[in-house]
Write a structure and sequence with these properties.
Radius of gyration: 46 Å
Largest sheet: 6 strands, mixed
Distance between the termini: 67 Å
Oligomer: single chain
Structural class: alpha+beta
Number of helices: 4
Strand content: 35-45%
Order of helices and strands: HEEEEEEHHEEEEEHEEEEEEEEEEE
Shape: elongated
Helix content: 25-40%
Number of strands: 22
Amino acid sequence: MTSSTKLLLLGTLALASACKKVEGAERAPAQPQRPPAPVTTATAVQQDVPVYLDEIGKNVAPEVVNVQAQVAGRITGIHFKDGATVKRGDLLFTIDPRPYRAALQQAEGALLRDVTQAQSAAREAARYKTLAVTNTVTQEDYEAKQSAADAAAAAVRSDSATAAIARLNLEYATVRAPIGGRTGRLLLHEGNLVRAGSDPLVSIVQMRPILVRFPVPATNLPALRQRAGQQLKVIAMPARDSASAVQGVLSFVDNQVDTTTGSVLLKARFLNRDGALWPGEFVAITLVLGMQNDAVVVPSAAVMQGQQGTYVFVVNNDGTAATQPVTVERTLDSLSVVAGVPAGALVVTDGQLRLTPNSRVDIRGGPTTESAGGGADPSASGTGPR
């Protein structure tokens, strides 16, 4: 066999082997395609959202009074139950009034006696004045009568003051509520002796209206000063079960910053008609500074944190999900105000851990691309952090 014949034979065998490999490759089974990842979606919505501060505050009664007796004596009557709500001027206690009634009668009797004597002395002085003009009596006699009349008039004024004090002490024997509010427990009971100005009888705490005191960081002072003169809404939420939110208004901003905490003290006023706010209780406070118009919000569950920042998965028209970088301006309960996603975009709120950029999705809950208005343009989706 010649060399040319051998080369021809080897080429034919090589061509046959290559054809078999190609044929075998065509018959090899295709790799299985990754199934779509099940996800839940939501639509980015454009709406007006409030701008607010969240803090913890403490309920403070505007007035707290410890009721004390202004006269001494034995308590003969209690006209309320401890823990009751009283109004200003309501009768609370009666202290034995008999000694003070007797003192008033004595003072009024002395006053009546001295008034009679003063009137007589005044008439006598007037008569002597006429006689002194005609020299019937001496000038010294007239002056003596006039001095006696002046002394009698002074005695009347003194007796009037004594009678007024006695009348006031008799009024103090009935102890009335100096403010309206809720009473505490009784500290003295019927039959107890009280001393004037030293033995507290009961405390009264004003409940309506009520104040809530709370600090805010001093960095928020510019926002507060911009809204000076405006009536800012404040919402209080007690920590108790089944408690409902109560609405009030900001009433006070302190004139200095606490250097130890870097905060400024604020107070809000609540009418507290239903008594939901209790003095001394801590409450969650929301100070509403205003409204942000046309903000784009998405569920906070849609926002992911990556090495390059925050991002969301946006579902495109072709059923794939792409990453889109976003900036979270602030969080409102379960919603986040974001920049970087257009209103109407379909974002993934659950199942992000199964996704990679441009992977196919199977929407199991929430709106679809059709109901969300066509979804996002694939060409507009980014390739942000994973």
